[in-house]
Design brief:
Helix content: 10-25%
Largest sheet: 7 strands, antiparallel
Distance between the termini: 41 Å
Strand content: 25-35%
Length: 192
């Protein structure tokens, strides 16, 4: 039997979301109306685990069911632009420096967001290299916008740029670049 929360979509608003998070969510949901953007569902386990519904495995960014305590986020994909946006509100379990988000948590979500964009537009990928510049700390409970886009594709290499800004101002928290490798046997990479 598949657990009842197996297909719960964690990428929708809940009571822990602050007003900035809600405002950005509504803005990006409006972008989905013409079909150019799509809100991506967010589950707590990989869908391939349907073969083993009793598996205790959980995706790292969805490792708790306590709303607002950890990673609160929603992702929006524009496949034709090979671009993804993610609104993110870090909870208290992600604390690094006092009252601020641990850099490893930010890095984890950045990798997940960029990887989702690469996977959704190019097929199965693995992270090969990440270059991240932390410019300013992210306060716990704040809202930030994560943007990642595919800049170019060379054979199986997928080069991406990424940026994390304040959800309510243009303040830059993180910028960087990432390299993903298209998995062998997953079809040819293309630069379209």
């Amino acid at each position: 039997m598949v657990p009842s929360d197996r297909f719960k979509d964690y990428g929708i608003p809940n009571a822990s979301w602050n007003p900035d998070m809600m405002a950005l969510y509504r803005r990006y949901m409006a972008w989905t109306e013409d079909g150019s953007w799509k809100r991506l569902p967010s589950y707590n386990r990989a869908l391939r685990q349907d073969r083993d519904p009793e598996s205790p495995n959980r995706l790292f960014t969805r490792n708790t069911d306590v709303e607002g305590s950890c990673f609160e986020y929603a992702m929006f994909l524009n496949a034709s632009e090979r671009r993804i946006l993610c609104i993110f509100q870090p909870g208290p379990l992600l604390e690094g420096p006092p009252c601020h988000t641990h850099g490893g948590a930010i890095f984890t979500l950045l990798d997940g967001v960029a990887g989702t964009c690469a996977y959704a537009t190019m097929g199965p990928v693995l992270t090969a290299n990440v270059n991240v510049n932390f410019q300013s700390p992210v306060p716990l409970g704040s809202t930030v916008l994560i943007e990642a886009r595919i800049e170019r594709v060379v054979d199986r290499k997928i080069f991406m740029s990424c940026l994390i800004t304040s959800g309510i101002s243009p303040k830059v928290h993180v910028d960087g670049s990432m390299l993903f490798i298209k998995c062998l046997g997953s079809g040819p990479a293309n630069g379209k």
